[in-house]
Design brief:
- The protein folds into 2 domains: 35-121 and 273-283 and 299-356, Periplasmic binding protein-like II (D-Maltodextrin-Binding Protein, domain 2, 3-Layer(aba) Sandwich), CATH 3.40.190.10; 122-264, 3-Layer(aba) Sandwich (D-Maltodextrin-Binding Protein, domain 2).
- Helix content is 31%, strand content 20%.
- The chain has 11 helices and 11 strands.
- The chain has helices at 47-60, 73-82, 96-101, 139-146, 156-159, 182-194, 218-228, 260-268, 315-326, 328-338, 345-356, and strands at residues 35-42, 63-69, 87-90, 113-128, 134-137, 173-177, 214-216, 232-237, 245-251, 254-256, 298-306.
- Helix 6 links the parallel strand 6 and strand 7 (214-216).
- Helix 9 runs antiparallel to helix 11 (345-356).
Length: 359
């Protein structure tokens, strides 16, 4: 696939075309459908899913080209606001205040935006400690590690929850995102909701400098830093956890490992946000739920588009691509490539009506 064109917002210095996934089944279609090129940008957590979606959509629409730049959630939102991309991917939705204040260049003023939680995935707490593959940790301990209140792997707070694990006398290196990140916002949202006595910085996209730790750019940078370090721990979209050790988090009286099913379960018990438009399906995650089998460290990544575009050029491709992404075929393709959880039938019905109305 050719490299994406430069957007009108200066944050895009260099774009990266996605390598198409070979494992996605072709959707039904004869390949003679829509044509034209559209540009999207945003969350690096969606990269594997976007590869699957692009391949599946283009197999049915061979004259269409989808160019996606995984520059991060904040960059994607800024690029969409400025008109450098016709859709954005973000690990957090725009706030109600941002929607009211921003002038979305590509959108007809007053028509609002569409936000679909199209990618649901657990955030894995990953670590690299020799001889240890899995740990049980409660929220307060996780927060203590990332605020550096707990800085040794054999600290009693960790050891007491893992009595059968041989923990080393080794310093903990906590790795966080250096860039503005929706993954960070979701991870800190979990800490803020479940361990506010330890994590008092709130749900934020930019890591607080006072907590220190090692910084790394984007999802791949965090995974590389944890993989290549010693005694490291970090957080990343679960599709990128690989062979690293992972944490089961305490929910009620049980420790729950990450899984697509557990991520979907927490979304099902969570409401939509208040004060939003009819095509804005932002979810307020109930991270301190004690329901059995839910995994609260979850990332809901959104696809964001205009309800009505200023330019009618390529609107059919935009609508068609989003229709494929949320379809059962598209969601299955993402699940196969990225380990994400398919959206629920209720959300599919609501989102489908909104996407069909794009003009």
């Amino acid at each position: 696939m050719k490299l994406p064109r430069l957007g009108t917002v200066s944050i895009i210095a260099l774009t990266t075309a996605l390598t198409l996934s070979a494992c996605v089944p072709a959707p039904v279609g004869d390949g003679t459908g829509l044509s034209g090129t559209i540009i999207g940008a945003g969350a690096s957590s969606q990269q594997a899913a976007q590869e699957a979606w692009v391949r599946g959509f283009q197999l049915a629409n061979v004259q269409a080209t989808i160019e996606y730049d995984p520059i991060g959630s904040g960059g994607g939102r800024d690029t969409f606001i400025g008109g450098g991309a016709v859709f954005a991917a973000s690990d957090r939705a725009f706030s109600v205040e941002e929607i009211a204040e921003e002038d979305f260049v590509s959108c007809v003023p007053g028509t609002g935006i569409l936000e679909i939680p199209a990618y649901i995935s657990p955030i894995a707490i990953i670590f690299n400690v020799e001889g240890v593959d899995a740990l049980n940790l409660d929220a307060a301990t996780i927060a203590g590690i990332f605020t550096r209140e707990i800085d040794q792997w054999d600290d009693a707070a960790i050891a007491d929850q893992n009595p059968t694990v041989d923990l080393p006398d080794q310093r903990i290196t906590a790795v966080h995102r250096a860039d503005d990140s929706g993954t960070t916002a979701n991870f800190t949202g979990y800490l803020s909701d479940t361990a506010p006595q330890v994590w008092d910085a709130g749900a934020i996209e930019k890591w607080p400098l006072e907590f220190g730790g090692e910084a790394a750019l984007q999802t791949s940078g965090v995974v590389d830093a944890v993989t290549n370090g010693t005694g490291t721990i970090g957080y990343a979209d679960a599709s990128r956890a690989g062979q690293l050790g992972t944490v089961s988090v305490k929910v009620g009286d049980e420790y729950v490992p990450y899984s697509p099913e557990a991520a979907a379960a927490i979304v099902d018990v969570s409401p939509f946000g208040e004060g939003r438009g009819p095509t804005d399906f932002a979810v307020e995650i109930d991270r301190d739920s004690t329901e059995a089998g839910v995994y609260p460290v979850v990332l809901i990544s959104y696809l964001i588009a205009c309800n009505e575009y200023v330019s009618k050029d390529r609107v059919d491709v935009i609508r068609g691509y989003l229709e494929y992404v949320i379809s059962p075929e598209g969601q299955q393709a993402a699940a196969a490539s990225a380990g994400s959880a398919p959206i629920s039938p209720r959300l599919f019905d609501q989102a489908s009506a909104a996407v069909a109305a794009i003009r």
